[in-house]
Amino acid sequence: MIRAIYILCEGQTEEEFVNSILRPYFNSHRIYDVRPILMTTSKGQKGGDVKYDRLRFNIDKLLKTETDILVTTFIDFFRLKNDFPKFTEAQQIKNKIQRVDFLEQALANSINNNRFIPYIQLHEFEGLLFASKDGFEFLPDLKEANLNKLLLAVNEKENPEELNDGELTAPSKRLELLLPGFDKNKPFYGGLIAEVNTINAVLDRCIRFKSWVETLIEKLKNQ
């Protein structure tokens, strides 16, 4: 019997999102033990640079320590390291969604445990914040020109997960350029924007994210 979901998070922003946004949503589906685990990325350090050997170490440790939990990942495709399973082969896949699907399956095959469900965010967590205009409009003291640019980005893609992953046009880079203080306090701003937008807006527009959440819920309900 699976009693809990442990979500290995790449950083503090994802950790805050799980605590403030995802956990209440899972609670509404009668899944009450949902824990973000800030990943150990190097000796004595948590969060930040994700290398495959450290990712696998974290996954294996959780699966071996507790036998009644479901383990999943919440890491970004943007700047994923080339040590990742099947990374070179994945680069031959032009469609980014198909490429991430391929990498997730490679990770699942590598871990080879039915209590593990891989998830890689396309392109990065911050894309989810563009699911609605409400969160940006709520922010005080945001210059009108900057707000307008953010609102244009909200409608740039039907699925905001697909927002450009370029060095200067990735969702996180747009926020750093247009939202003063974002780069110094990402967990706060990320949590605030997501809370105002609501989880429903994210689920409505972010297709891969929605599929991941639904998979986790079904896994626990159908055991």
Please describe what this structure looks like:
It is a single chain. By secondary structure, the chain is an alpha/beta fold. The chain has 2 domains: 4-123 and 206-221; 126-201, no CATH class. The chain is 49% helix and 13% strand. The protein is built from 10 helices and 7 strands. The protein has helices spanning 12-28, 52-65, 87-90, 96-111, 134-138, 144-154, 171-178, 186-197, 199-205, 207-221; strands spanning 4-9, 34-38, 40-42, 45-46, 69-76, 116-117, 120-121. The strands form 2 sheets. Strands 1, 2, 5, 6 and 7 form a 5-stranded parallel beta sheet that branches. Helix 1 packs parallel to helix 8. The longest helix is centred in the N-terminal third of the chain and has 17 residues, at 12-28. The radius of gyration is 17 Å and the shape is globular. It starts with a strand and ends with a helix.
Notable characteristics:
single chain, 223 residues, 10 helices, 13% strand
Q: Please tell me how large the radius of gyration is.
A: 17 Å
Report the average pLDDT across residues: 93
- What class would the helix/strand composition place it in? alpha/beta
Query: Given the structure, what is the number of helices?
Result: 10
What is the strand and helix layout of this fold?
Elements: E1 4-9, H1 12-28, E2 34-38, E3 40-42, E4 45-46, H2 52-65, E5 69-76, H3 87-90, H4 96-111, E6 116-117, E7 120-121, H5 134-138, H6 144-154, H7 171-178, H8 186-197, H9 199-205, H10 207-221
Parallel strand pairs: 1-2, 1-5, 5-6, 5-7
Antiparallel strand pairs: 3-4
Helix pairs in contact: 1-8
